[in-house]
Design a protein that fits this description.
By secondary structure, the chain is an alpha/beta fold. The protein is built from six helices and twelve strands.
Length: 230
């Protein structure tokens, strides 16, 4: 799925500010092909901003980053073509049905519709495909957003709190999707509120403090969730 030897995600001293406030202050990290890393940190530490920068929704004020070997500033369209981005809020259209939301997404992405029903079935929403999203629970909306993200068969996933509002079955679904993605050479960077739902899945964790990767917050995890400083 990725070019051999090319890191899935590579950041070098990435910084981003909003006005005079620096949110990211020189973030350097590397995620290899086939790896999933959790991104931990307090509210306001810069986790979501980093994902938005890597997904080309925001530009860095300084530093550089490559996703799948593609420069995020030099070729943002190329990055978007290989990235699946899932924001903390699902960002769905309430007045459209589940299927219509995915149909609209395929039109915007220039894709066909063949994957819509298989993905609705994969996330457990095929039976409610013709129901308007405004009647969906928060967990159902999260499942639909997951299906939308997978429409383009992305190589690299950027997930902002993907377990939010999910029950045990929903958590198992996210983990199954991630395992399948990694098995075919994908990679993922996952913002987490807590580590527990992803134990046994992640290859390591990175902790952001005050806009920087904390030196003591980089762990490589064993299958049981125990870690050592990377």
């Amino acid at each position: 799925m990725h070019a051999s030897g090319v890191p899935a995600i590579e950041c070098n001293a990435v910084a981003r500010r909003f006005g005079s406030r620096w949110v990211l202050r020189g973030v350097t990290l590397r995620v290899e092909t086939g790896e999933a890393f959790g991104l931990l940190g307090a509210n306001g530490s810069g986790k979501s901003t980093l994902l938005r920068v890597l997904g080309t929704l925001l530009s860095p004020n300084s530093g550089s980053a490559r996703v799948g070997g593609i420069d995020i500033v030099g070729d943002p369209d190329g990055v978007r073509a290989i990235v699946g981005f899932s924001a903390h809020t699902p960002g769905l259209y309430d007045d459209l049905t589940a299927r219509e939301n995915l149909q609209f997404a395929t039109e915007m992405m220039g894709l066909g519709t063949a994957r819509i029903d298989p993905l609705l079935e994969r996330v457990g929403l095929l039976d409610v495909a013709m129901h308007r999203v405004r009647g969906f629970s928060a967990g159902m909306q999260r499942r639909l957003a997951l299906a939308r993200m997978l429409l383009g068969t992305p190589r690299i996933l950027l997930l902002d709190e993907p377990y939010s509002n999910l029950d045990a079955d929903g958590v198992a679904l996210v983990n199954a999707v991630l395992r399948e993605h990694l098995a075919v050479g994908g990679a993922a960077l996952v913002v987490l509120h807590e580590l527990t739902p992803a134990v046994g899945l992640l290859h390591g964790t990175l902790t952001i403090r005050h806009g920087r990767i904390a030196p003591d917050g980089a762990l490589r995890l064993a299958a049981d969730g125990r870690g050592t400083v990377a």
